[in-house]
Amino acid sequence: MRIALTGSPYSGKTTTLDALKKVVTNYTIIDESALPLIQQLSGMCGFDKSKQWRKQFDMAWQNLVVARQLHLEERAGGANFIVDSTPIDSLVFAYVSGAVNQELRDACRQVTYDKVFFLEMIQPFDPRTETGRLQTEEDCKDIGATQLLMYEMYKMPPIRIPFMPVEQRVAKVLELSGLALCQ
């Protein structure tokens, strides 16, 4: 089974995935593709220049994130996996910034997920700019609304998971996926 966690920035995807790693043992866990790339870029040119570059070259940035994502999913092979964000999320970021291209659309046609869980944004909002995030709370709301529409458009309707303690989110994802603990 291919399971995707999606949601706007600051919705708790990574935290939820980290908690799932502790209780789901026979699934490949695929971490978010963007954050390691942000860290690598920041290491090469500094944090501020990294943010500037990603804004200026958003289309190239999203293509890079998607290429890494597709590579990680391909490496998982036919195995069961749970992934933190998908190429569709990169398409949404590109769409919101006006930087969509055919390469991103084509990448989204390549992927399918058996279950997509949309995690609602954590409240109160914390921009966590120290992580390299560029989005405001309003941006995050727009991104989340666009994600819901985009997953529907790609025939993978998301299951909404409200903001709740991470243990409850994990239990809900497991329940709705038909997975048991330590599976």
Structurally, the number of domains stands at 1
Biggest sheet strand line-up: 2-3-1-4-5
Straight-line distance between termini: 12 Å
Count of individual beta strands: 5
Oligomer: single chain
Let me know the CATH homologous superfamily: P-loop containing nucleotide triphosphate hydrolases
Report the C-alpha radius of gyration, rounded. Answer: 16 Å
What CATH calls the topology is: Rossmann fold
Helix/strand structural class: alpha/beta
Number of helices: 8
Work out the helicity level: 40-55%
SSE order and pairing:
Blueprint: E1 2-6, H1 13-23, E2 28-30, H2 34-45, H3 47-56, H4 58-75, E3 81-84, H5 87-97, H6 102-110, E4 115-119, H7 137-153, E5 159-161, H8 166-177
Parallel strand pairs: 1-3, 1-4, 2-3, 4-5
Helix pairs in contact: 1-8, 2-3, 4-5, 5-6, 5-7
What's this model, at a glance?
It contains 8 helices and 5 strands, in the order βαβαααβααβαβα. With 183 residues, it is an alpha/beta fold. The chain has one domain (2-177): 3-Layer(aba) Sandwich (Rossmann fold), CATH 3.40.50.
Q: Could you explain the architecture of this structure?
A:
With 183 residues, the protein is α/β, with parallel strands linked by helices. The protein has helices at 13-23, 34-45, 47-56, 58-75, 87-97, 102-110, 137-153, 166-177, and strands at residues 2-6, 28-30, 81-84, 115-119, 159-161. The chain has a single domain (2-177), classed as Rossmann fold. Strand 4 (115-119), helix 7 (137-153) and strand 5 form a beta-alpha-beta unit. Helix 1 packs across helix 8, helix 5 packs antiparallel against helix 6 and helix 5 (87-97) packs across helix 7 (137-153). The longest helix has 18 residues, at 58-75. It is globular. The model has no long low-confidence stretch (mean pLDDT 92).
